[in-house]
Amino acid sequence: MRYKYLVLTPFLLVIYSCKETKSDELKTPKLELESLKHIADVEERYQSVNVEMCEVVGGEFWIPYDLIDTAAVKARGFSALKRKIPAIDLYDEKLRMLTSALGPMYIRVSGTWANTTYFQDNDLPKMTKAPEGYENVLTRKEWKGVIDFCQYLDAKLVTSFAISEGMRDQKGNWTNAQIKPLLEYTNLLKGEIYASEMFNEPSHSSHGGAPENYDAIDYANDFKAFKEYVSVAAPDMKILGPGSTGEGGILGGNDSTITTDKILSAKPIPEFDIFSYHFYGGVSQRCMGQLSPENALNDEWLSKTEDGLKFYEEVRDTYLPDAPIWLTETAEAACGGNPWAVTFLDTFRYLEQMGRLAKKGVQVVMHNTLAASEYALLEQDTHDPRPNYWAALLWGRLMGTQVFDMTINIEGINVYVHNLKGANGYAALLINPSEKAVDFHLTQNAEQYLLTAKELVSKEIQLNGKVLKLESDTTMPDIKGVSVSKGELSVPAHSIMFLTFQGK
Predict the structure, then answer these.
(1) DSSP assignment letter at 294
(2) What's the pLDDT score for residue 35?
(3) 441 bridge partner residues
(4) Per-residue model confidence (pLDDT) at position 23
């Protein structure tokens, strides 16, 4: 596959012949929905998103590729790969409209920046510098924006708290110095933190704001104090954890002294209501990663999300076998994503991950991010939808919470089947990352939603041959399927097809 590849896409995809013979029908795989095996259930808020704490407070976040100054990188190193971004306006009408359209979700406000964020619990102007032991400042106004955003969307808030030196006593012990005022102010606003990790990514704590030489024993002691406090101050808040990432050979840079195995076997043993993990299949070119667009559609890449799950699922099964498993942070690649994360090329990975993990029993998948850097669903400055946003929109509208096993063997494509959201029926997702069209036989009539692009690396995506774009900043396009009759159907090369079927 070349980096730029033309996909010729006809508007009408039905190839139905009245002269079809019985022998032809036997040769073509059938998409049959009778007697499907129900294999899993996901949460109503299965598809969820992250809003980085850095976005909320305004801070140093990944610089766009077209603004990277190679001379500055040579001179200043890693710091030159970031730029100052303003705090996100969570009252923006366009942002709210687009997020709301995705359906019920969790909004996770966290990230590495949350580990060192100081909550300024007053209504004075924002501090120009964080207190000693912290790096960032979160104001009441900014946190109110988060609460109001979640309430507007009817979303449930997930977060994490500071772990840096600033919130510790003179002996280095965990204190409630930061979590207490944040919980109290949340209650004052009549908001709710539905769930929280103690802090973000302990697997990378050495460069995530934790005290020097922080290890699994420190984590266990901190967690004991944390849980004792929140069990009284926020008894309904679910505790997620540990929220590590990259283990099992998926990524490098992990801290060997604080692996997930060591965290869950340390004394006192941490116990979580929900087992959480993070997944990135690699790091972006921004951080010297070796991923390439030429490999973005091969099965090794598309299935890698299952490798990440396998490692953490085995750990969960060993220590917390009854805990549901959530993927609380994931995207195309760590360090803000690759240049092609903004294009149709990454939409295959996005939907493969959603389909594969649902079949494996993962309850929630939180995409990183909503509107920051290349891996975001929306353009950072304009909030215009990217291809992954439109894919997420169709998933949210069509794919229900019941997951079924589809045993059809259609060479070259993967098929995922859920109940049809809000109706009595099924929704099937067919993903064809290959360079040739694939035919199969429909045994009943359906509605088709076909996603294509003129080029795989295009930011512009088409639904049933028509470019998807907003009618205005506050008006969605009319999302409609095309009726297709039972018979032969072709899934074009490099395309994604949703099919909906009424009645079970």
Answers:
(1) G
(2) 85
(3) 30, 488
(4) 47
Please tell me whether residues 142 and 105 are part of one structural domain: yes
pLDDT single digits (tens) 243-294: 999 998 888 667 778 999 999 999 999 999 999 999 999 999 999 999 999 9
CA–CA gap between residue 205 and residue 259 (Å, rounded)? 10
Residue 434 burial class via C-beta count within 10 angstroms: exposed 0-12, middle 13-18, buried 19 and up: middle
CB 354 within 8 A of CB 395: yes
Nearest CA-CA partner of 352 in 288, 301, 292: 301
pTM for the whole thing? Answer: 0.93
- What total of structural domains would you count in the chain? 2
| 431/295 same-domain check | no
- Strands 438-442 and 30-31, by their bridges, are parallel
Domain match, 129 and 146 both: yes
Per-residue pLDDT reduced to its tens digit, 200-243: 999 999 889 999 999 999 999 999 999 999 999 999 999 999 99
Helix, strand or coil, per DSSP, at residue 235: coil
CATH code assigned at 47: 3.20.20.80
H/E run at residue 242: strand 238-245
Give the pLDDT confidence of 348-406 residue by residue, as tens digits: 999 999 999 999 999 999 999 999 999 999 999 999 999 999 999 999 999 999 999 98
Range of the domain at 467: 22-36+406-502
Q: Both tokens of residue 350?
A: 């996005």
Would residue 5 count as lying in a domain? no
State which of 403, 429, 464 marks the end of a domain: 403
According to the model, what pLDDT value does residue 283 have? 95
DSSP-derived 3-state class of residue 302: helix
Q: In whole angstroms, what separates CA 62 from the centre of its chain?
A: 17
Distant-in-sequence contacts of 165-168, Cβ < 8 A, 24+ apart:
165/132, 165/133, 165/211, 166/116, 166/118, 166/130, 166/131, 166/132, 166/133, 166/134, 167/133, 168/133, 168/211
